[in-house]
Amino acid sequence: MTDAVAAPLPARLARLVKIEHTVFALPFAYVGAFLAVGRTPSAHDLVWITLAMVGARSLAMALNRLIDAGIDARNPRTAVRELPSGQLSVAQVVAFCAVSLALFLVSVWQLAPRTHWLWPIPVAAFVVYPYLKRWTWLCHFWLGAVDGLAPVGAWVAITNRLPWQSWALGAAVALWVAGFDCFYALFDADVDRAQGLHSIATRFGVRGAFAGARLSHAGTIACLVAAGLGLPVGALYWIGVAGVAVLLAYEHALVRPGDLRRLDAAFFTMNGVISVVFAVFVIADVVS
């Protein structure tokens, strides 16, 4: 028995959903929550928003792994994942999905009334996303839109409203995620092409993936600026936006067509830093 299979079930489930990557989306949920009320939200709201995010993201990742198990098994990079390698069974992952959905629903019902009937939208989006790579290279932008629901959901969860500023923040996150997913597609371009799967890299090549990432990240900054202009924000918010712009520029400087050696650093490390840095500046702006 390998060490991976011998690991406790919770550890294998945490690896399945890459729980550490919650840092990508959760800070933006907090951004939406703080900007929605213009002050520190109540502990009640923050706790239940956090649990809703954990449940939703765990459900989304587990569904993705479940639906893509066959594809992952045929890709040398992903064949070691928990389902294709036999570290977890289908029944265990289905049970984990059920628990994650339950956590999400229980959390939603502790928040504003409008969330009680909006919850099927993200769940449906989670189910659709894994299938899109079978049909269209626009799958990256669907993934971005799913993650972009984080600040929008947090906003409505506290205020029961969805003003345009919340959608501007959501669009910023959507384009940010879509941009770095264009980079991520470069990991599997050859394998995806051989399997008949679609991505911006298989459709437009390496340079097309870079162009998609650049345009998406330029849109991220534009949306953050638009949201800030519509909100009573201070200097720290704008420093945060400038920080995101600088970090995105640095992320793009790490990799270039023909030299993808630092793609891991660009994708994983820098995007975690970007979300945390922006959240820190926004929260500091709101509470100062």
Rg is 19 Å
Helical amount: over 70%
Largest sheet: none
The tally of strands reads 0
Q: Number of DSSP helices?
A: 14
Rounded mean pLDDT score: 93
* Terminal-residue CA separation: 54 Å
Overall 3D form: globular
What class, by secondary structure content?
mainly alpha
Could you spell the SSE succession in H and E letters?
A: HHHHHHHHHHHHHH
Stretches with pLDDT under 50, minimum 5 residues: none
Strand content: under 5%
Compact overview of the structure:
Helices cover 74% and strands 0% of the residues. The chain is built from 14 helices and no strands.
Structure description:
74% of the residues lie in helices and 0% in strands. It contains 14 helices and no strands. It has helices spanning 3-6, 9-16, 26-37, 43-67, 69-73, 90-108, 115-118, 120-132, 139-159, 164-184, 189-195, 200-229, 235-254, 263-287. The longest helix has 30 residues, at 200-229. The radius of gyration is 19 Å and the shape is globular.
